[in-house]
């Protein structure tokens, strides 16, 4: 596998192999793309405007503004931006599978003893695109696709196959 550079990401978007809705030039990094906060869910309550205050020692979920679309030979890793790590945020992210399309739901935890303020629209995590050695035989959409096409914070599967 190879990590795509900013040049490769832009070419992937232009050629249609990669899709990023609401693309923002500021979010492009040398080796990835920063995804921004569309909404935050805390204890089942969803916030989608202003600055959200996450209480100390609280789990929360973030949905991305951007919808991403991956080709059958492109996957991605998600990395929390270090500015959030420095504030006590802990997150565990999965792989963005080849063939996935939709917004992303990200689980996080405010491990600090202080309230965490997260502005809607702020850059939250980086998506690092990787090319696979060959296209998948069955992409995410065809293999399971439980969250294919999701929008907003999504905790239960969208598609039950």
TrEMBL record:
CDD domains (UniProt xref): trimeric_dUTPase
Keyword match Hydrolase: yes
Protein transport among keywords: no
Annotated InterPro entries: dCTP_deaminase, dUTPase-like_sf, dUTPase_trimeric
Name of one Pfam family that matches: DCD
Recorded GO MF terms: dCTP deaminase activity
The name this protein goes by in its record: Deoxycytidine triphosphate deaminase
Taxonomic source organism: Methanomethylophilus alvi (strain Mx1201)
Top-level taxonomy: Archaea, Methanobacteriati, Thermoplasmatota, Thermoplasmata, Methanomassiliicoccales
């Amino acid at each position: 596998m190879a990590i795509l550079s900013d040049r490769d990401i832009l070419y992937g978007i232009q050629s249609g192999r990669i899709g990023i809705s609401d693309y923002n030039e500021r979010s492009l990094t040398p080796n990835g793309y920063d995804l921004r906060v569309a909404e935050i869910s805390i204890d089942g309550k969803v916030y989608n405007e202003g600055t959200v205050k996450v209480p100390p020692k609280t789990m929360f979920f973030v949905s991305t503004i951007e919808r991403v679309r991956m080709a059958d030979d492109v996957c991605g890793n998600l990395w929390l931006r270090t500015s959030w790590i420095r504030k006590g945020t802990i997150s565990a992210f999965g792989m963005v599978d080849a063939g996935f399309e939709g917004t992303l739901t990200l689980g996080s935890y405010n491990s600090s003893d202080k309230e965490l303020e997260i502005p809607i629209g702020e850059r939250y995590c980086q998506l690092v695109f990787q090319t696979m050695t060959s296209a998948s035989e069955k992409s995410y959409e065809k293999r399971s696709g439980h969250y294919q096409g999701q929008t907003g914070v999504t905790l239960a599967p969208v598609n039950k196959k």
